[in-house]
């Protein structure tokens, strides 16, 4: 492990019912692996009064019931001890979600903008976007919104100067160095380069979210006719997402941003 992975985590109070464990100030795969390892360890052996966890790029929020939990000092010591003795996963059990995506016409309103910024054709932008697997660092902004790392740096495009008031659910977008999927209709300022028929968040489904932090995602280009067919399939009550075992090449890690600003988005 490198020096960043051995950095002693900071434990911060976030109110009377939450403690945050921070593993660093930058965004990186190894730091995020420690976040996942801590989450797994706590959830596999929850302490008294434990409610749940919320992972981010570089930290883990641990929520608890202050009326039922151990004391704040005991909890801080417990988290400090656990965090100092984490064993990160080797990648053999990672999952990969297949995301069919249409990069055509009205389903990709900003594709030409991204292409012009990159000096590429629209088709080449779609090809490069779909050529890599993406690592899901965290969920945020709205329920189920995945922040995906690993995008080809040639596709980096500034966010829109004037955000849209409504972006349709399923929109695949690029914002700066990141890519993601809008899970519900919502405002947003990222560039819309395609649309997936998948419902990455559905409160009426069990589970409501099937792309979680620590998973990988693969965008697969489809034409409009296949997009329409899949839209009908996804609406069926017995539909299941295509989740596979991730076959990670030795040393494969997503590219990432190293500045604190990215972590706050």
Task: Describe, in plain words, how this protein is organized in 3D.
- The protein is built from 7 helices and 14 strands.
- With 265 residues, it is an alpha+beta fold.
- A 5-stranded mixed sheet has the order 7-6-13-5-14.
- The relative contact order is 0.16.
- Mean pLDDT is 89; it is low at 1-5 and 256-265.
Please outline the helices and strands.
Elements: H1 3-6, E1 10-13, E2 18-22, H2 29-44, E3 50-55, E4 59-64, H3 72-83, E5 95-101, H4 111-118, H5 122-129, E6 133-139, E7 146-149, E8 164-167, E9 171-175, E10 178-181, E11 186-188, E12 191-195, E13 216-221, H6 224-234, E14 243-245, H7 260-263
Parallel strand pairs: 5-13
Antiparallel strand pairs: 1-2, 2-4, 3-4, 5-14, 6-7, 6-13, 8-11, 9-10, 9-12
Helix pairs in contact: 4-5
Task: Record keyword descriptors for this entry.
265 residues; 14 strands; 24% helix; Gyrase A, domain 2; disordered N terminus; 2 domains; disordered C terminus; single chain; five-stranded mixed beta sheet; Cyclophilin; alpha+beta; four-stranded antiparallel beta sheet; elongated
In the residues, how many domains can be counted?
Answer: 2
> In terms of structural class, how would the helical and strand content be classed?
alpha+beta
Q: Quick one: overall form?
A: elongated
Q: What is the residue-mean pLDDT, rounded to a whole number? A: 89
Which CATH C-level class of the largest domain is it?
Mainly Beta
Write the CATH homologous superfamily of the largest domain: Cyclophilin-like
Topology pattern, helix = H, strand = E:
HEEHEEHEHHEEEEEEEEHEH
Measured as a percent range, the helix fraction is 10-25%
